[in-house]
Amino acid sequence: MLETVFDLRGNYINYRDRVKHTSPVIPCLTIIGKDLFVMEENLPSHTEGGLINFYKFRRIYQLITSTIHYQQARHRFKKHNDLFLFFANLRGYASDELDIISELIEPHK
User: Fold this and answer.
1) Backbone CA torsion sign across 14, 20, 21, 25
2) Which residues pair with 31 in a beta bridge?
3) At how many degrees (to 10) do helices 54-72 and 29-42 cross?
4) pLDDT given for residue 55 in this prediction
5) Could you give the C-alpha distances from 55 to 26, 28, 50, in angstroms and in order?
6) What pLDDT, on the 0 to 100 scale, is given for residue 48?
7) Whole-number average pLDDT of the chain
8) Which of 35, 54, 77, 91 has the fewest CB neighbours in a 10 Å radius?
9) DSSP state letter for 92
10) How many CA atoms lie within 13 A of 3 on its CB side?
11) Is the pTM for the entire model greater than 0.70?
12) E strands present in 1-109
């Protein structure tokens, strides 16, 4: 299910559609960050006439306010003890450990 939602084809169209039609939502901050980066890099801040490009700043504003809305919404999730224990006992990995695991999963050629 998550593989379908976070399929990157179509610029994450499945995720974006799910967010529009689901409540409450835990937003994917990496996609939001990507969107902000793309807007900043691809949309000029000023028009050819030297005026402020309100289209760019309106899009940035809409993205930021929707993210703030997600943070302020009340979530009433049921506590799943198995899942809670899994994350409570999840250990972190050092960078060198992650390199070894990455090499095992996807060997460099």
Assistant:
1) positive
2) none
3) 170
4) 96
5) 27, 24, 14
6) 93
7) 90
8) 91
9) P
10) 0
11) no
12) none
